[in-house]
């Protein structure tokens, strides 16, 4: 597994959405009912789609969406729950445990996976499976892992407009990749410029609640997995009630921080003001302040435009350190030790 493979995965993200738009979801008619809640179960790269869905659906439906990253599920899960089990490999032990508990509680279950034990269990138990393309690493399959979730809710009549937003997302990302791929020289490649600034620093990513909060989490996780270095994230306006106080000492550590601020034209006006004040507070304490603006009009296009720059920047950061971004040996070691 090479760095070139990861670049190919990134370049192919728009086509993941194109493929998802062609999915046959006719089976959802058997799942149509009045749900009280929606629970998405997943871990790591397979859970990020649930996080996106949670924020995306919050302004589109009164039905709450919860993401479970654990072996156990909440006590409220019952026959009125739509339970979406997501595991790229189909063998994630936490998700398999959560699936079994949801089955025992009588939830309506749909699985999104490439196969594995999850597919086998669902087929044996009579639940539907949305089978997605294999051959990727989970963190590079965000289009395959998110889009089916949103499209399912659209087909169920829980939210609407998903197809149109995904189509715009494809157009925006196709335009962006021509400016971000390795063939674009460093000075004109925003992701490469960001990676150069992040090298030898501690990345701290700031997003905004309800808009870019999951994009900030995604940046953090991608830097962790691809560049193999620590990164942290926080969310406005909450960070103005705690984290912003912590920029006094130790000065040596603060001087190594690069703060990435994810911005969106639809950020709350008060949050926009908070961002400007916060920048002024930390500007003399940190190494860099890097602002990244979203592109597009719909929520999904704007969200994924922020994610896409971060995905590319994390891979370029790995290359800055001379690291192959694709393997995750520590995770493989953990799984082997737990086996």
The CATH topology annotation of the largest domain reads as Rossmann fold
Shape: globular
CATH superfamily of the largest domain: Glucose-6-phosphate isomerase like protein, domain 1
Per DSSP E runs of 2 or more residues, the count of β-strands stands at 9
The secondary-structure class comes to: alpha/beta
Rg computed from alpha carbons, rounded to a whole number of angstroms: 20 Å
Domain tally: 2
Classified by CATH, the class of the largest domain is Alpha Beta
Describe the strand arrangement of the main beta sheet, using strand numbers.
Answer: 2-1-3-4-5
Quote the distance from N terminus to C terminus.
23 Å
Show unreliable segments. none
Average residue-wise pLDDT: 97
What does this protein structure show overall?
There is one protein chain. The protein has helices at residues 3-11, 13-20, 48-58, 93-104, 116-125, 142-155, 162-180, 190-198, 213-227, 251-254, 269-282, 299-320, 329-338, and strands at residues 37-41, 65-68, 81-87, 108-113, 128-131, 202-208, 232-236, 257-263, 288-293. Helix 2 packs antiparallel against helix 7 (162-180), helix 3 (48-58) runs parallel beside helix 6 and helix 9 runs parallel beside helix 12. With 339 residues, the chain is α/β, with parallel strands linked by helices. It is globular and about 60 Å long. The protein folds into two domains: 3-160, Rossmann fold (3-Layer(aba) Sandwich); 176-320, 3-Layer(aba) Sandwich (Rossmann fold), CATH 3.40.50.10490. It has 13 helices and nine strands. The strands form two sheets. A five-stranded parallel sheet has the order 2-1-3-4-5, sandwiched between helices. Strand 1, helix 3 (48-58) and strand 2 (65-68) form a beta-alpha-beta unit.
């Amino acid at each position: 597994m090479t760095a070139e493979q990861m670049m190919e995965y990134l370049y192919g993200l728009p086509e993941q959405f194109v493929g998802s738009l062609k999915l046959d979801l006719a089976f959802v008619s058997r799942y149509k009912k009045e749900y009280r809640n929606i629970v998405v179960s997943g871990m790591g790269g397979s859970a990020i789609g649930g996080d996106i869905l949670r924020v995306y659906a919050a302004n589109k439906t009164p039905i709450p969406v919860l993401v479970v990253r654990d072996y156990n599920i909440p006590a409220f899960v019952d026959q009125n729950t739509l339970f979406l089990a997501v595991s790229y490999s189909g063998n994630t032990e936490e998700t398999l445990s959560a699936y079994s508990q949801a089955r025992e509680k009588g939830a309506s279950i749909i699985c999104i996976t490439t196969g594995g034990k999850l597919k086998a269990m669902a087929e044996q138990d009579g639940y539907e499976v949305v089978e997605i393309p294999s051959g990727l690493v989970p963190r590079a399959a965000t289009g395959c892992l998110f889009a089916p979730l949103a499209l399912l809710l659209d087909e169920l009549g829980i939210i609407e407009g998903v197809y149109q937003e995904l189509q715009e997302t494809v157009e925006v990302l196709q335009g962006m990749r021509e400016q971000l791929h390795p063939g674009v020289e460093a000075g004109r490649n925003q992701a490469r410029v960001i990676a150069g600034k992040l090298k030898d620093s501690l990345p701290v990513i700031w997003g905004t609640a309800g808009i870019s909060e999951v994009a900030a989490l995604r940046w953090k996780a991608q830097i962790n997995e691809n560049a193999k270095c620590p990164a942290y994230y926080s969310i406005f306006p909450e960070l103005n009630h705690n984290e912003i106080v912590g920029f006094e000492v130790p000065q040596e550590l603060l001087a190594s921080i690069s703060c990435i601020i994810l911005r969106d034209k639809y950020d709350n006006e008060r949050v926009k003001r908070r961002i400007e004040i916060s920048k002024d507070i930390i500007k003399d304490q940190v190494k860099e302040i890097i602002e990244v603006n979203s592109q597009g009009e719909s929520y999904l296009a704007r969200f994924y435009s922020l994610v896409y720059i971060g995905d590319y920047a994390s891979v370029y950061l790995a290359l800055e350190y001379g690291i192959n971004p694709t393997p995750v040996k520590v995770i493989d070691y953990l799984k082997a030790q737990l086996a």
